[in-house]
Amino acid sequence: MVKVIRTVLELKQYQSEFFEGKSVGLVPTMGNLHEGHLSLLERSVSENDISIITIFVNPKQFGPNEDFDKYPRTLEQDVLKIEDKFSENILVFAPKDNSEIYPEGFDTTIQVGALTKILCGANRPGHFDGVTTVVYQLFSLSKATNAYFGQKDYQQVKVIEKMTTDLHLPIKITMMPISRDQDGLARSSRNQYLSASDRETALLLPRTLVEIESILKEETWVNSMIKINEVLESRIADKNWDYLEILDASNLKPVNENTTEVVLVGAFRVGSTRLIDNRKVEIKYA
Ligand code: PAF
Question: What is the pLDDT of residues 37-89, one digit of tens each?
Fold first, then answer.
């Protein structure tokens, strides 16, 4: 059964009745659910007594010229998708308005440091402050013991892990693999902004990451670095790329002699739509 809760008061009443001694899994989303979100929920259901999926388009993580207004809001269809896939009890917390999360006078920002200043943080100033502030609030309201995030937003997961460690938050973060459409594009609510020809252009993002991954797998470290730098230079000259980098997967710092796994991260613009993607690759010769 799916229960939809629209206010914090209702959530608290539900918690006091049903949460005592239970493990609680949280799947924070901005709605417009696709298979990727549902796979996070599936994992949560398999690991917890109670699962909560939150649906809230968080104004604090959008910049002034970003797509907050046009971001798809599809609560009814989202609930149907959950009902279709799950027979278990699922709680959908979909705050009826922004004041449920940010009540009048709300004046707190949770800010992680250096990790939020690179990659998407450099292109979208303040974005991660909005993410960590809402995620902290959702952790706190939900009383969750486990939370599930998708690898597509790799930097976001690293930032949330850092916040959780630094603040000793009593919650375990699980990162789930990227869910992709058949053509290789990572699933994202923003894909629906793309026309058929935009989508063809957008495929350069996953295809470039696959190309770099195969170089890494086929060549020695030194040879692969030479070839990869050629790919990076040729691509990055194209203005569609916000960034395309190869970093240490554990901390998003430059690769060094202790690196055992790298992450290839890219952000690519097609018209006004900005898409991100990444691939993790274990390495032997750093
Ligand atoms: O990944 C998202 O959809 C959002 O950034 C999140 C984690 C739900 C916070 O609003």
Answer: 999 999 999 999 999 999 999 999 999 999 999 999 999 999 999 999 999 99
Judge if the beta carbon of residue 157 lies within 6 A of ligand 1.
no
Residue type, 48: N
Whether 27 lines ligand 1, by a CB cut-off of 6 Å, is: no
Under 8 Å between Cβ of 48 and 169? no
> Is the CB of 147 within 6 Å of ligand 1?
no
Using the predicted structure, report yes or no on whether residue 285 has a pLDDT greater than 70: no
Q: pLDDT, tens digit, for every residue of 223-271? A: 898 999 999 888 878 889 999 999 999 999 999 989 999 999 999 999 9
Q: In angstroms, rounded to a whole number, what is the distance separating the alpha carbons of residues 96 and 73?
A: 12
Atom 3 of ligand 1, nearest CA residue: 29
Task: Give the strand order in the sheet containing 241-248.
Answer: 241-248, 261-270, 273-282
Query: Could you tell me the distance, in angstroms and rounded to a whole number, from the CA of residue 116 to the centre of ligand 1?
Result: 15
Residue of 129, 134, 276 with the most ligand 1 atoms within 8 Å of its CB, for mutation: 134
CB of residue 189 inside a 6 A radius of ligand 1: no
**pLDDT for 81-139, tens place per residue?**
999 999 999 999 999 999 999 999 999 999 999 999 999 999 999 999 999 999 999 99
Ligand 1 pocket check for 58: Cβ under 6 Å: yes
Task: Please state the pTM of the whole predicted model.
Answer: 0.97
User: Distance between CA 12 and CA 33 in Å, rounded?
Assistant: 25
Structure tokens at 83: 């009902």
Tally of CB atoms within 10 A around 163:
23
Which domains can be identified in the chain, with CATH numbers? 2-176 (3.40.50.620), 189-282 (3.30.1300.10)
Is 37 noted as a catalytic residue in this protein? yes
